[in-house]
């Protein structure tokens, strides 16, 4: 092997590897995290209701419905690359229980699905109060702030732990406000789950807002 | 549905023996029978067979407790095993990690955090000792005990009724389930009335969030309880897929990690901050890729696309429509965000979230989005 080939062959291999790497990293081909989803792939709106033959070993991909999208075909927003620093999901969706930093994305999606209708000033107050009341509901903390809502009871409380409210939205409901929220926490058995649904009601008073049942 | 009236000789064998016999004969593995409580006359509909990921011995205890209520609390209406199972799910995950002996004894005993008010387990209100440390090992403060987490003082109030001859033990699932049934029934509650049902659960734990969660699980068990798809034999290929997923138990979650060859580093970065490039493991759909590849099935990379493969099982059909080897999805109106491998009995193997690892778990009670079947 000549000197030039000793140089060129590795260089060519490197170029091929680089090209392969770039191909793998290009949008639409990189393995995206699991939570990637497209509007067409909702829980109830999938087109894949038709039975298909079972795939056989070596036969490759099971026959999917014609409408079934592929990852490459359905990436509707930039796919993450290894150089990215955040927002790995093409759809911006966080994974299940992906930690507090994912809560803004969860809340944005939740509010899109459950839009509120309060003036922004009221919405901000209601949001803060709802977080406090729900924390009291789940952990027992500061229940004394709302003695009518949390009347003294001999019933023991075994509180949830690691509680945080992930998303809040509020709408008027008659003469009060219905607050829907998502929260995360560990139940008395220690089982942690996120995106738990919760509902509470708030009523405007002469001095502000109060939780009501 | 099978309806039988037990002859006396059968009663002497006991309901559990009957349950086993009927279970063997039931088409598809799960049937129902109407059974008389030992001393009662009202028929009680109870499930038989392997059900919903609840250990069989615990299910037996729930069924016995419900069947005994017409005698022990005649005015009580509407108590069902699903409610007892839901409480045990939230309180101890069905005594997960503990052994249940044939006589109902659970070992090691289940003892909650010592309620000394220090904040451990979130408790800030001390509960002074009432049992001399007999059940919770602490003679200064109490702790909740047993799979349904009774305070010793509460359990003591039911001990004589649960086991008239003495010797009731909160870490015996028969005793604990019976005490819980009596506690829920109170002075003859009508648990078909939502307000009375809520009150019954609330007295267990003073949180409406807790009440909601128990009711979620009760509904989940009610759906699963009629399942015929969880207990039967599975095909060799389905078993290989399940075995492949199970073999990865304990492997870390990695954002974007996993492929058909196995665990791998993932990509940067989850919105919660996990950099999958630094973790060798699986994300939820990566685990499916690997597991199904072992039988030559090549899935799309992400959960939302995996939901479009094979026969879709709509969420409206309930978890009971799933069969072992199905993929089980979770999502909301925005779409699918999680996938696991259904293994029957209301259980799945999944890579749940960043910071966690591949594990078996109950199918989540929230955001169930149906399944997909690629193997039959």
The percent range for helix content of chain A is: 25-40%
Mean pLDDT of chain B: 84
Q: Please report the total strand number of chain A as a whole number.
A: 4
* Quaternary structure of the protein: heterodimer
Strand content of chain A: 15-25%
Question: Strand percentage of chain B, roughly?
Answer: 5-15%
First CA to last CA of chain B: what distance?
25 Å
Largest sheet of chain A: 4 strands, antiparallel
What can you see in these coordinates?
The complex is a heterodimer of chains A (213) and B (376). The relative contact order of chain A is 0.11. Chain A is an alpha+beta fold and 213 residues long. A 4-stranded antiparallel β-sheet of chain A has the order 1-2-3-4. The longest helix of chain A is centred in the N-terminal third of the chain and has 23 residues, at 3-25. Chain A has helices spanning 3-25, 71-74, 103-113, 120-139, and strands spanning 161-173, 176-186, 192-204, 209-212. In chain A, a hairpin with a 5-residue loop joins strand 2 and strand 3. Chain B is of the alpha+beta class and 376 residues long. Chain B contains 11 helices and 12 strands. In chain B, the strands form 4 sheets. In chain B, strands 7-12-8-9-10-11 form a 6-stranded antiparallel β-sheet. In chain B, strands 1-2 form a two-stranded antiparallel sheet. Chain B starts with 7 loop residues before the first helix and ends with a strand. Chains A and B meet through helix 3, helix 4 and strand 3 of A and helix 4, helix 8, helix 10, helix 11 and strand 8 of B.
């Amino acid at each position: 092997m000549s000197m030039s080939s000793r140089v060129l062959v590795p260089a060519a291999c490197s170029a091929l590897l680089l090209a392969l790497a770039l191909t793998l990293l290009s949008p639409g081909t990189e393995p995206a995290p699991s939570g990637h989803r497209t509007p067409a792939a909702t829980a109830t709106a999938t087109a894949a209701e038709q039975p298909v033959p079972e795939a056989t070993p070596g036969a490759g991909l099971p026959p999917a419905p014609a409408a079934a999208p592929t990852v490459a075909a359905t990436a509707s927003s930039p796919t993450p690359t290894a150089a990215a620093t955040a927002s790995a999901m093409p759809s911006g969706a966080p994974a299940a229980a992906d930690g507090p930093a994912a809560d803004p994305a969860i809340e944005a999606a939740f509010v899109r699905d459950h839009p509120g209708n309060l003036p922004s000033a009221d919405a901000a107050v209601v949001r803060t109060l709802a977080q406090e009341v729900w924390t009291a509901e789940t952990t027992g903390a500061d229940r004394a702030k709302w003695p009518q809502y949390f009347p003294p009871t001999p019933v023991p409380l075994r509180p949830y732990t690691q509680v945080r409210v992930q998303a809040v939205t509020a709408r008027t409901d008659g003469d009060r406000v219905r607050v829907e929220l998502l929260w995360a926490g560990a139940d008395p058995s220690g089982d942690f789950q996120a995106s738990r649904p919760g509902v509470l009601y708030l009523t405007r008073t002469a001095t502000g807002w109060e939780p009501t049942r | 549905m099978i309806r039988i009236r037990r002859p006396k000789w059968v009663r002497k064998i006991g309901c559990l023996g009957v349950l086993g016999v009927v279970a063997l004969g039931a088409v598809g593995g799960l049937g129902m029978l109407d059974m008389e409580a030992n001393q009662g006359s009202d028929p009680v509909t109870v499930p038989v067979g392997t059900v919903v990921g609840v250990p069989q011995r615990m299910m037996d205890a729930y069924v016995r407790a419900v069947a005994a209520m017409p005698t022990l609390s005649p005015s009580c209406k509407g108590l069902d095993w699903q409610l007892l199972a839901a409480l045990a799910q939230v309180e101890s995950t069905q005594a997960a990690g503990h052994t249940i002996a044939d006589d109902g004894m659970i070992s090691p005993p289940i003892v909650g955090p010592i309620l000394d008010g220090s904040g451990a387990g979130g408790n800030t209100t001390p509960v002074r000792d009432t049992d001399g440390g007999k059940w919770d090992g602490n003679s200064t403060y109490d702790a909740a005990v047993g799979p349904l987490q009774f305070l010793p003082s509460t359990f003591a109030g039911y001990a004589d009724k649960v086991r008239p001859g003495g010797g009731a033990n909160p870490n015996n699932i028969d005793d604990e389930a019976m005490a819980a049934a009596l506690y829920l029934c109170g002075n003859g509650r009508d648990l078909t009335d939502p307000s009375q049902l809520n009150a019954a659960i609330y007295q267990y734990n003073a949180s409406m969030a807790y009440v909601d969660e128990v009711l979620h699980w009760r509904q989940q068990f009610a759906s699963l309880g009629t399942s015929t798809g969880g207990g039967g034999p599975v095909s060799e290929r389905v078993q290989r897929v399940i075995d492949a997923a199970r073999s990865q138990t304990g492997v870390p979650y990695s954002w974007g990690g996993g492929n058909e060859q196995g665990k791998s580093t993932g990509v940067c970065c989850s919105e919660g901050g996990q950099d999958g490039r630094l973790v060798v493991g699986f994300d939820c759909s990566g685990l499916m890729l690997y597991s199904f590849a072992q039988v030559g099935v090549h899935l799309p990379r992400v959960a939302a696309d995996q939901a479009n493969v094979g026969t879709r099982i709509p969420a409206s059909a309930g978890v009971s429509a799933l069969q072992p080897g199905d993929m089980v999805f979770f999502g909301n109106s925005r779409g699918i965000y999680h996938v696991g491998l259904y293994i029957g009995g209301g259980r799945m193997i999944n890579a749940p979230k960043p910071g966690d690892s591949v594990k078996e778990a109950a199918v989540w009670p929230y955001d169930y989005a149906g399944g997909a079947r690629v193997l039959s």
